[in-house]
């Protein structure tokens, strides 16, 4: 039985992998039992370790700040979110992100976009030359890069698909 989690899902969690069970997390309260309330800028994903076969984030990660001072402490919410995605994925589970990205102007137009993604951003989470640097930033997981490409329909969106290495 495959499970998927959609981050920043609103009232309609997406299920691009046709999982049997669909869950969501959003900052806005929902009456649906499968959608949990959490502010992922400052909170953990409210599910146990290795729960999901898939995690998706459509038009979401660009809203997660790279740096934040919270309760008088310097935090890195984007790094922590990637740790959380890795944590809740099963081994070889897939993370799919669909986000406006640099150099397209749409990544800058919305004033709530605070995290500017490039085709190279994903490399910090996939080992190689950035492994030591990403570890020093606090990233504890590891992903294998499966797909990094521009969306053909929404040409200003970058699509990532990463597999959790555990």
Tag the structure with descriptive keywords:
166 residues; alpha/beta; Rossmann fold; seven-stranded mixed β-sheet; two-stranded antiparallel ribbon; 9 strands; 13% helix; 33% strand
Written as H for each helix and E for each strand, in order along the chain, the element string is EEEEEEHEHHEE
CATH superfamily: Vaccinia Virus protein VP39
Which structural class fits the helix and strand makeup? alpha/beta
Helix-residue proportion:
10-25%
Instruction: Indicate the proportion of strand residues.
Output: 25-35%
Low-confidence stretches: none
Q: Which descriptor suits the 3D outline?
A: globular
Second-tier CATH architecture: 3-Layer(aba) Sandwich
CATH-derived topology? Rossmann fold
Largest sheet: 7 strands, mixed
Report the CATH C-level class: Alpha Beta
C-alpha-based Rg, rounded: 15 Å
* Termini separation: 20 Å
In total, the number of strands is: 9
User: If helices are DSSP runs of H or I spanning 4 or more residues, what is the number of helices?
Assistant: 3
Number of domains: 1
Determine the mean pLDDT.
96
- Taking strands numbered 1, 2, ... along the chain, how are they ordered across the largest sheet? 3-2-1-4-7-9-8
């Amino acid at each position: 039985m495959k499970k998927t989690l959609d981050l920043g899902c609103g009232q309609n969690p997406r299920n691009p992998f046709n999982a049997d069970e669909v869950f969501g997390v959003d900052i806005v309260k929902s009456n649906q039992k499968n959608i949990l309330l959490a502010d992922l800028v400052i909170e953990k994903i409210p599910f146990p370790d290795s729960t999901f076969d898939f995690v998706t984030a459509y038009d979401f990660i660009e809203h997660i700040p790279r740096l934040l001072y919270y309760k008088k402490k310097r935090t890195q919410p984007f790094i922590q979110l990637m740790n959380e995605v890795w944590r809740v994925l099963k081994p070889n589970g897939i993370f799919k992100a669909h986000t406006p990205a640099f150099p397209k102007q749409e990544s800058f137009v919305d004033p709530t976009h605070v995290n500017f993604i490039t085709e190279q951003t994903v490399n910090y989470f996939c080992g190689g030359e950035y492994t030591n640097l990403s570890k020093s930033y606090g990233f504890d997981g590891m992903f294998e890069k499966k797909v990094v490409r521009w969306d053909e329909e929404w040409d200003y969106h970058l699509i990532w698909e990463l597999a959790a290495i555990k």
